[in-house]
Prior knowledge:
Layout: H1 6-13, E1 34-38, H2 44-52, E2 56-61, H3 64-74, E3 93-97, E4 110-116, H4 125-135, E5 136-145, E6 151-154, H5 157-173, H6 183-190, E7 194-207, H7 213-224, H8 226-229, H9 232-238, H10 241-263, E8 269-281
Parallel strand pairs: 1-2, 1-4, 2-3, 4-5
Antiparallel strand pairs: 5-8, 6-8, 7-8
Helix pairs in contact: 5-9, 5-10, 7-10
The chain binds S-adenosylmethionine.
Amino acid sequence: MRRFSAEYLARTRAGMWADSRAALADLALDSRDRIVDVGCGTGELSGVLREESEAEVVGVDADTDLLAVAREELGGGDDESDDEFGGADSPDFSPVAGDATRLPLRDDCADLVVCQALLVNLPDPTPALREFARVSSDLVAAVEPNNAEVGVDSTVDREVTLESQVREAYLAGVETDVALGETVARRFRETGLSDVRTRTYYHEKRVEPPYDEHHVESARQKATGEGLDRHETELRRQLTSSEFDALRREWREMGREVVGQMADGDYRRVEVVPFEVTVGRVGG
Ligand SMILES: C[S@@+](CC[C@H](N)C(=O)[O-])C[C@H]1O[C@@H](n2cnc3c(N)ncnc32)[C@H](O)[C@@H]1O
């Protein structure tokens, strides 16, 4: 299983859903009683679900370290996996340790099962979607990035070309389909979900003065090469050893330029990641 740090999730989700939540309209959040957020991580989407609904939200994840952060951020008792959620005194966020392909939850116990950036990390999303349909009595939804369509602009010119080079090699070297995007709708239909709809949310990440802690950390990780090293396995599948070393050298130089421009208050960067929000109905 691909692992994520709480720091990475906080940094890459910062500002997500803050500008507009229109793309979540088909989830009909205001009419939900019980929602399961699968692969909830630190609860970035769970928090939005709680804000937009009166529902009890259960966050399921296989990584108990991330669940502990979600519990801290959103409240909730100990791991609730032994209890069925929905009890009269259950908190409105319940963290549950579990695998997306074998959810530790009863049939039809929720009226929405949703995930954000989970399917792109699974070797095969279909078994998880079948589980979503088993656990939900009404809607199933997925918010999945289309990583092949990410757009970047930067005051450091070579950041744009290097990122595009790295993205291309990463997409070719990664073992799961991280650019699922529009194909999620087809997978929903193949799972037997009906009335399938898709809307796109463009998550725009802007770096400009005054820089916050996430911006500074991201620049630091560029300059040290840490950000690139996170994808080393995938990149090395596509690049020779000397190509990878050369790319890493150039990447770190680029990172130092970013840090330099930041020190002068001149650095600006915009990244737009399209997330496809797909919703389908169980049965019908
Ligand atoms: C990219 S993170 C997304 C986290 C969160 N949904 C968000 O958008 O910030 C993917 C999450 O899926 C979890 N995950 C990956 N494979 C899983 C599996 N088979 N079952 C449950 N969780 C899984 C990871 O631990 C991680 O928290």
